[in-house]
Request: fold
Amino acid sequence: MRAAYRVAQVRAAEQALIPTLPPDTLMLRAAAGLARRCQVTLRDQGRVYGSSVLLLVGPGDNGGDALHAGAMLARLGVSVRALLADPARAHAGGLAALRAAGGRTVTDWPGRTDLIVDGLVGIGATGALRGSALTLVERLALLDPRPPVIAVDVPSGVDVDTGDVPGNAVRADVTVTFGCLKPAHVVGPAAGYAGQVEVVDIGLRPWLHGDPALRVAEAADIAAWWPRADAGSDKYTRGVVGLATGSPGYPGAALLSVSGALAGPTGLVRYAGAAHQIVVPAHPSVIGSARVADAGRVQAWACGSGLGTDERAQGELRSVLAAPVPAVLDADAITMLVDGTMSGELRRRDAPTVLTPHDREYARLAGEDPGPDRVAAAQKLAAWTRSVVLLKGDRTVVAGPAGEAWVNPTGSPALATGGTGDVLAGLLGSLLAAGLPAVRAAVAAAYVHGLAGREAARSGPVTSPDVAAALRPTLAALLG
Reply:
């Protein structure tokens, strides 16, 4: 697991650490890590000595990091020039170090440049870029061809704590961040501006206190959490998942959700719905019935994908909500919660519930768009519904009702096609039935689903059956 911390937590850690170190130690550690990454990029292009680097330098410590890194590069024979956004407020120590090493300042964009370092604004900036920093970022965006860009700590122009991009921002190829990840590296549109993110250890981690703003699962976490059969397992002890999905108008949703569930860790899948006469011939291992009440005992339900919103569908949802087992509520099940007639049943549930809205479903349910802070939006809905919320998107956010938040790093544009959410709901229901706690089940399902989308995309344009088919090879590779 990786963790991302808010600006206030990082600042507090820095203020606690700095007095224990000689002057400028923290900045020099950061600059050394930045300079090393610049060398790697230059070497990949063919040479370090004799190459040309342009520093875009703002006021404060972010600009100081860039200037000190520039000085280190200059001592290696790199031609380093610094374009100062605000010369009167440039970091004095960093500027002196750069000049002493043979670097120089310029007042306009130079000709040939092999690498650009974005040191305009750091984690202390708020709001959209303005003034000379905005002018420089606009100019950078027009460069053609554009050399590689390395951002210092965060790309200039992003909102560090939310991952929003309120205006123009630097699109970095690499972001070198110091001490820990920040939310802008992993969530929201800002994550797409960060490029490859490299964390430089500057000794900050022992001084970071409180829960992180976000957790990011890694492959090892998912593999460790994933329920596995052992010598004493049978189909019932592995878990039985029920699926209340599909309808006469949308039988494909039933097939897709069942495909997702069958790829999961449970030992038995029960399908309850209008499409049972289609599902069972397609998947002979599935036990079919017409209604939730007739399905038999299950350890979790997945409900809503293609279910419809008519009277029959409402009755099925009420039956799922009344069941004392974990439940995934997807698509039409979420729509049926909007008018509030079932909010009491939802909030009174003792068993875990996972809601899986996309942005439009979130807006209908919450009465407002997720807005620029998707993590806070998911946490707000989770607290209000007493549920785990899986807010779908390129960087899917999972929030628990107690405030815990995760972001999925495996999202893919390939998943932006009809029916992939049905596959996810079935897989998530299977994980819940196998006994995985709701937050972990949501995180694991999103992670594997994202990997399957990437795997399916390797063969060309993706459909939801392709994603379902890719789940098994994806899991085989992940679980070893």
Notes: The chain has 17 helices and 18 strands. Residues 219-479 form a domain with the UDP-N-acetylmuramoyl-L-alanine:D-glutamate ligase fold (CATH 3.40.1190.20). The first helix runs from residue 7 to 17.
